[in-house]
Amino acid sequence: MTATDRSIELIKTAAQAAADKLAHDIIAYDVSDVLSITDAFLLASAPNDRQVKSIVDEIEERLNKELGTKPVRREGDREARWVLLDYVDIVVHVQHSEERVFYALERLWKDCPELDLPADAKATRGKGAEHAKLQDAEDVAELGELR
Predict the structure, then answer these.
(1) Cα–Cα distance for residue pair 11/63, rounded to 1 Å
(2) 139 exposed, middle or buried (CB, 10 Å; 0-12, 13-18, 19+)?
(3) Which residue in 39, 74, 93, 138 has the fewest CB atoms around it within 10 Å?
(4) Single pTM value for the model
(5) Rounded to whole angstroms, what are the CA distances from 95 to 4, 17, 34, 89, 106?
(6) pLDDT single digits (tens) 11-29
(7) What is the pLDDT of residues 61-117, one digit of tens each?
(8) Do 31 and 109 meet the contact criterion of CB atoms below 8 Å apart?
């Protein structure tokens, strides 16, 4: 079994919405062979809670406006550290960068086929690590100034 055309359409639209809101490390997996509850997972992350919320809102708005669908379930809203949007055909995980590293969902699904995403979404790969390096450099510089 493979992801349906509908799931792929949802994934691509959600991935583009996430990329438009500057999400990091967007990736999608076809999990239809290993899970009966959904066809595909989309993972994306952001370096702060506000941006996580912004990405989630954009994905919801875009899927509703362009494809006429709303999530059947939305979890993790209050903290905006890890928000899950369940569209039945697909499940979207938008995580704060720290949660993304800690939970490493990619490890769980690495044996599943990766789904092709729009170029803007593919271009986000490695952005999380890039952002972390910049943040570390800023922290070191700030420490130097304090001494």
Answers:
(1) 9
(2) exposed
(3) 138
(4) 0.88
(5) 25, 15, 22, 20, 12
(6) 999 999 999 999 999 999 9
(7) 999 999 999 999 999 977 789 999 999 999 999 999 999 999 999 999 999 999 999
(8) yes
> Which residue bears the tokens 């100034």?
145
In angstroms, rounded to a whole number, what is the distance separating the alpha carbons of residues 55 and 38?
21
* N-term to C-term CA, the chain: 60
> Beta strand pairing status for 40-46 and 90-96?
parallel
Q: What is the residue whose two structure tokens read 């593919």?
A: 122
CA–CA separation, 28 vs 131, rounded Å?
A: 21
For tokens 């949007």, what's the residue? 85
| Cα dist from 73 to 11, 81, 88, 90, 96, whole Å | 16, 17, 9, 11, 19
